[in-house]
Amino acid sequence: MVLAGCGGRHNWLAAAGEEARAVETLFWIVLVGAGVIWALVVGLAVYAHRAEAKPHREREARRFILWGGVALPVLVVGGLLIWGLLILRDITADDGALTVRVDGERWWWRVIYDTPEGPVTTANEIRLPLGERALFRLTADDVIHSFWVPALGGKMDMIPGRETTLALTPRRLGNWGGLCAEFCGGAHALMRFDAIVMEPDDFAAWLAQEAQPARVAMDDPGFAIFAEEGCGACHAIRGTEAQGPVGPDLTHLASRDKLGAGIYDMTPENIARWITETDAMKPDIDMPSYPGLRGARLDTLVSFLMSLE
Amino acid sequence: MAPRRKIVPPGDAPRVIDQGSVWILVAAPSIWAAHFLISYWVAAIWCAKLGRGTSLAEPRWIIAGLGALCIGAIIGLAVLAVRRYGGVFVIFEEITESSERGRDRFVGHVALLLCVLSAAAILFTVIPGMVLGQC
């Protein structure tokens, strides 16, 4: 149970990122150092208990207390403080080959890649090129959230009205887990995302694809249902008249692995249930359920959404 | 009629920090608290006015300079604790004597320890300002 967090895709000891390695190095040094100090203190307690009761020379005792009780703690804590601050300075430094803006919403992630050709908006999934430093500009729309991909690096609060920064430099390919690390309300524990590390060429191809508008025929019956039900008031599908800014961008919904901010597999069954029993799948969220959507009409809408690749 | 001034004999002028007064106990932690608050204000106002990413070059020197002054004042307090109260850093016998002298020595000892703690705390307030270079 204690070690439950020490494996898998949320493993902060996976050394999958440059910044996670920096934190991990500090962790091992603090752990070993704490062990040494513990052993010394316990050793002294045993010595004090067993030793023959006789006074020490005052000069030696004074020196021991001054060095061991004042100088050593100040130096050790000061050194660790400086080390920790240097790591913090590096992982928040304002530079990166790639800039990604992430906005925390209750309870999902709005993700915008800044590219020379303009912003590329997606949601609930972050893809990163291997070995390149990505700078995240983090904001929040409603309450305080916290952005954390344990395997890749440190966590950073997302504070309404402010922008915080965090760099991640992935060193291992893989699909790593990300989550909100600051309690933010009802569905906080269901506010997750995938952080997928790709080869740089694959990433460039993916980003180019993501920048494209959706390939939707205007007479697509699924899109007609999407429009009739008013989905476009909240959700955007680039390249169509649906430009709602409230909920996640659905332009390339089906190319994502997960549905509902990292919690369900992207399958037609899950999408159908998401539409009709939204509140049961993710309690407290703003999206209303559409229990009246059934049969062929629902199937057509789900097929349309699954075609958004 | 001119107001009558109370004539205080030289050497008997009331001192806030002297034998018998416990103000010396709160003086050093108060200096730390003031330094912390002023550092926070300086950095917060600086960054709020000039925006994210602004260099902290000027405020960090204000914080460090102020820190040096405060540590200087704390050293002065430590000297007072030793000279006027007979405070020692490490005590080798219990201070249980129920007398002016015993109480002074106890206050001096505690004040000296608080001086060390406050000086270290000021140092730890200055360090982040020196390491982190921008808002």
From TrEMBL, chain A:
Organism: Salipiger mangrovisoli
Physiological role: Subunits I and II form the functional core of the enzyme complex. Electrons originating in cytochrome c are transferred via heme a and Cu(A) to the binuclear center formed by heme a3 and Cu(B).
InterPro entries hit by this protein: CcO_II, CcO_II-like_C, Copper_CuA, Cupredoxin, Cyt_c-like_dom, Cyt_c-like_dom_sf, Cyt_c_oxidase_su2
Domain (Cytochrome oxidase subunit II copper A binding): residue spans on this chain: 95-209
Catalytic activity, reaction form: 4 Fe(II)-[cytochrome c] + O2 + 8 H(+)(in) = 4 Fe(III)-[cytochrome c] + 2 H2O + 4 H(+)(out)
Family, as annotated: Belongs to the cytochrome c oxidase subunit 2 family.
Domain Cytochrome c: 217-309
Keywords: Copper, Electron transport, Heme, Iron, Membrane, Metal-binding, Respiratory chain, Transmembrane, Transmembrane helix, Transport
Name the UniProt record assigns to this protein: Cytochrome aa3 subunit 2
TM helices/strands, residue ranges: 26-48, 64-88
NCBIfam families linked: CoxB
Bilayer disposition of the protein: Multi-pass membrane protein
Compartments reported by the entry: Membrane
Lineage: Bacteria, Pseudomonadati, Pseudomonadota, Alphaproteobacteria, Rhodobacterales
Source organism superkingdom: Bacteria
Automatic annotation (TrEMBL), chain B:
TM ranges: 21-41, 61-82, 110-132
Superkingdom per UniProt: Bacteria
Keyword tags: Membrane, Transmembrane, Transmembrane helix
Name under which the protein is recorded: Uncharacterized protein
